[in-house]
Amino acid sequence: MALRVLLIDDDARLAELLAGYLEQNGVTLAHARDGQAGLRALGAGAFDAVLLDVMMPGLDGLEVLRRIRAGAGGRVPVIMLTARGDEADRVVGLELGADDYVAKPFSSRELLARLLAVLRRAAPEVEGERLTAAGVVVDVAARQARVGGELVDLTGIELDILVALMRRAGRVVPRGALLAEAGRDDVAVGERTVDVHVSRLRKKLGDDPAAPRKIRTVRGIGYVMPKDPGEP
Fold this sequence. Notes:
The chain is an alpha/beta fold. It has eight helices and twelve strands. It has a five-stranded parallel β-sheet with strand order 2-1-3-4-5, sandwiched between helices. Strands 6-7-8-9 form a four-stranded antiparallel β-sheet, covered by helices on one side. Strands 10-12-11 form a three-stranded antiparallel β-sheet, with no helix packed on it. Strand 7 and strand 8 (about 145) form a beta hairpin. Helix 2 packs parallel to helix 3 (about 60-70) and helix 6 (about 155-165) packs across helix 8 (about 190-205).
């Protein structure tokens, strides 16, 4: 069965070009010309992923993303599309819960590769890992993190960073390598962005910002999660 993807973008020509290419590769593309129409489409049907333009009249893409994450769209994977190259733009989109960010102009082939990568991360193999470190438990297959038995609401990139740190519990992960370790080396953001994500992740995990115990900073190098007592 073909994948169903929703494009929310006011560029009709782009929608036409993408629809033809994606159809050849097993992806059915639906098109909404603005944010309101996109939200209505999400409320009316099920989609495997959303391609969301940042610059649109009326509701811009960032506001649409906020509403998707707060409403019926829930955790549907979202790839942001934008002509802007500013890092701050990318940071805001990722912090709001975007799963990836592609700058225009892009090739249809690149977009398809990014789309399939995001879908693989969102729907991993059933037989996945169960990780524990520093009092945190992650079911990698279900993409769920828990602290004290309580589910923690993490964005896609936050969970990927957490998994990367937990897989290397007890070892320092260099700041500059953390996104690559998390399988996010295709996300074009700098080390400052990593610090932002780690700060948000600590807060969500209930870590003490003054003296973090779950994700510790190794000054000038990177981050480390201590192993739980008794782990080899």
